[in-house]
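Please decode residue identities from the backbone states below.
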């Protein structure tokens, strides 16, 4: 079982859907075109640069487990008591699923795994802590059936 486990010091922007706009052709006719916003492209480029050192020699295969922990820096409004505990759950935007989608898409394009559909079990969390960034753990799940006997 191969496993990737690393931290990147970066605040991930959520994956946004492609936007639509009306595009005019040279002959005067128009159509609805789809485009990726500039901020999404810039975020993908920055993530690619930070993920590059962790790219495996060959893609992870089979059913995969993924765990993403998105860490945001403390805000001025956070109490000293919360800071002393070391972490605080982040229950505001952006949504976990949009953050994870951005990471999955970039890692798939880079070749960490063949297709993000191979991720059968994914855990995401958002926290406030002292050191912002993303903790990424992706592993080949050869034991994916373990513990499933109890399910109905």
């Amino acid at each position: 079982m191969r496993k990737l486990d690393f931290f990147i010091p970066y605040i991930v922007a959520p994956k946004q859907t492609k936007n639509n706009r009306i595009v005019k052709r040279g002959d005067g006719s128009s159509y609805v075109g789809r485009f990726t916003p500039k901020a999404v492209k810039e975020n993908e480029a920055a993530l690619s640069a930070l993920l590059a050192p962790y790219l495996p020699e060959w893609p992870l295969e089979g059913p995969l487990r993924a765990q993403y922990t998105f860490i945001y820096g403390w805000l001025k409004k956070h109490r000293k008591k919360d800071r002393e505990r070391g972490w605080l759950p982040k229950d505001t935007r952006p949504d976990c699923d949009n953050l994870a989608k951005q990471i999955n898409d970039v890692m798939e394009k880079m070749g960490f795994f063949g297709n993000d559909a191979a991720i059968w079990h994914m855990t995401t969390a958002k926290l406030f802590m002292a050191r912002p960034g993303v903790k990424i753990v992706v592993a080949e799940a050869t034991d994916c059936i373990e513990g499933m006997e109890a399910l109905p």
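Observation: DSSP finds three helices and seven strands in the chain.
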